[in-house]
Amino acid sequence: MNKIKLSVVSYLNSKPFLFGLEHSELLNNIDLSLDVPSVCAQKLIEGKVDIGLIPAAVLPKLKEKYIISDYCIGALGKVASVMLYSNVPLDQIENVLLDYQSQTSITLIRILARYFWKIRPQWIPAAAGYENNINGNTAAVIIGDRTFGMENTYLYSYDLAEEWQKFTQLPFVFACWTSNKKLPESFISEFNKALKYGIDNRSLLIEELNKKNIYPTDIGTYLNQNINYDYDDAKKEALSLFLSYIPKLEQIIQPK
To answer: Which of residues 170, 196, 223 is at a domain's end?
Structure first.
């Protein structure tokens, strides 16, 4: 039997999923790669992998798609790692540099800007190192592990998941486990068991990670409180609402 190919986001928030898979017998039947969200999505779109933990905004680009898991990367309020940083308040922002690693954060801020904050900045696709260009009326969206330790770097910071919750009274789904083909129910069942093991044993993972001292953040708070992993009815409603906004947004240059 050919191994099922998976692409998983390489951020801290996906570590519980990896922990579960690494402690599962499924590990022998999968080919696992770690990627930034945009690469994860592209691999699934191009059929280079069978399953991806992909940015929610990419779902409409898949010709065939199946959300196969009871778990996702989500937030009920503050997510602490999808941020808009600025040295001026929202109504003074003229330009926004867009994180090149995830389409979801780009889409989310465009929705918030137009429908919640009522601002119309210029959107500027950014390349590596763009964090150094936040100044004056230019702000930037920064996501993932790069946000750790940046809490007091800029005068203003806006948590995009928290802003979405204020706007909609709903949680947010950043990424979901999606396949581009139908998979055996037996595999999906074992896959979900593996993910559940990782979620249920976050304390063991957090202990391991704290010993390594890699991340400049409170790992326990982040994985237990900021990230919410259940793909429940409220998350499904939130995802549906989020996707409904995408056709309303004008096209801008997409990250490569």
So the answer is: 170
Segment 189-247, tens digit of pLDDT = 999 999 999 999 999 999 999 999 999 999 999 999 999 999 999 999 999 999 999 99
Asked if residues 13 and 143 have their Cβ atoms less than 8 Å apart, the reply is no
Q: How far, in Å, CA of 103 to CA of 246, rounded?
A: 11
What is the rounded distance in angstroms from the CA atom of residue 206 to the CA atom of residue 122?
Answer: 40
Q: Are residues 134 and 55 in the same domain?
A: no
pLDDT band at 127 (very low <50, low <70, confident <90, very high): confident
Residue ranges in the chain assigned as alpha helix (H): 15-22, 37-45, 103-111, 160-168, 185-200, 202-212, 219-221, 233-245
What residue numbers bound the domain in which 132 lies?
82-170
Using N-to-C axis directions, what is the helix angle for 160-168 and 233-245, rounded to 10°? Answer: 90
Please identify, among 142, 170, 198, the residue that sits at the C-terminal boundary of a domain.
Answer: 170
- Looking at the fold, whether 148 and 133 belong to one and the same domain comes out as yes
For the chain, what is the radius of gyration of the CA atoms? 18
Give the residue from 100, 79, 67, 18 showing the smallest Cα distance to 222: 79
How far apart are alpha carbons 135 and 245 in whole angstroms?
30
The structure's pTM equals 0.93
